[in-house]
Amino acid sequence: MSLYAAADIGGTKTAVALFSGTQLIAKDVFPTNGESGADNLVQRIGVSYRRLLDRCGIKAHDIAAAGVGCPGPLDLKNGRIVHIATIGFHDVPIKAMLERELDLQVFLENDANCAALAEAVIGAGKDLSSLAYVTVSTGIGCGIVVNGSLLDGVSDCAGELGHLTVMPGGIMCPCGKRGCLERYSSGTAIANAASEALDERLTTKDVFDRARSGDEVCVHIIEYAADRLAFGLSAICQIIDPGVIALGGSVLKNADIFMPLIRNFLAEYANDAVLKNTRLCVSELDGDQVLYGAAIYAEGKKLDFTA
Ligand SMILES: [Zn+2]
């Protein structure tokens, strides 16, 4: 079995891992600290990678390649980060920098696309030709597989669900448009809406906890977030007719409340003919979707679909 390295560069945390095929064998997680700059982050990824090799007794020349998942927008053809607002990176040639640091061939892909690939090969969408992975966390990201291939799009922006307009003329978004899904259904949006309505600073977890205790304001805010998210998911259903939509991200830790709501609203918005073969579920890859997908991407695994 060939060995691969994988990295998941996130807004808050970065994870580095070693894989034997699709088996995760060692993982290291550390704060991204974007303010210290891209050079510094790349160096720390290198330190982490070499520490994992030492820990596992693996020689660097036995690693075949590295896959790296990163928030977008990315310029995949040139291996560059265009812009990551949460980390503060602009126009970073991340692929070339990591190839120098790790002395490996690096395959760069959007993090949500990596997660969708992981779902397609080893997760909820195994053996399905079309699926979507949607992460609901600080923001909202989405990766789409259609007919066995990741959908990148002409500008590498396919599946930018977080910036789908779900409320024309609605809340202003940092992307420059109004009414984006991310402004209604992300963890940040839920926490902000409740904090404003109740005039006290609440976290997303606080809002769900209060809803569980019957706080009507919090229940209403969560219902509205689920409603707009389902509206966004219905667009995916109608356009790609997926076999599964797997949901992940920190907000789905509250799946007990959130999932039944999303399911009910989705049934209102999407056509029965599409929904009858679309399963909505919480990802079971437990926060490591991007690492798994990055390793699979590095392996260049061909998707083998039967459905
Ligand atoms: Zn937006």
List keywords for this structure.
Nucleotidyltransferase, domain 5; five-stranded mixed beta sheet; 2 domains; about 300 residues
Model description:
This protein is α/β, with parallel strands linked by helices. It folds into two domains: 120 residues, 2-Layer Sandwich (Nucleotidyltransferase, domain 5), CATH 3.30.420; 159 residues, ATPase, nucleotide binding domain (Nucleotidyltransferase, domain 5). Helices cover 39% and strands 23% of the residues. It is built from ten helices and 13 strands. The strands form three sheets. The chain has a five-stranded mixed beta sheet with strand order 3-2-1-4-8, with helices on both faces. It has a five-stranded mixed beta sheet with strand order 11-10-9-12-13, sandwiched between helices. Helix 1 runs parallel beside helix 2 and helix 7 packs across helix 8. The radius of gyration is 19 Å and the shape is globular. The protein starts with a strand and ends in an 8-residue tail after the last helix. The C terminus is likely disordered. It binds zinc ion. Zinc ion binds next to loops.
Distinct small molecules: zinc ion
Instruction: Write the H/E string, N to C.
Output: EEEHEEEEHEHEEEHHHHEHHEH
Distance between the termini: 27 Å
CATH topology grouping of the largest domain: Nucleotidyltransferase, domain 5
Count every beta strand, where a strand is a DSSP E run of 2 or more residues.
Answer: 13
Number of domains: 2
Counting DSSP H or I runs of 4 or more residues, the number of helices is: 10
Q: What level of helicity do the residues show? A: 25-40%
**What average pLDDT do the residues reach?**
93
- The helix/strand class is alpha/beta
State the CATH class of the largest domain: Alpha Beta
The fourth-level CATH homologous superfamily of the largest domain is ATPase, nucleotide binding domain
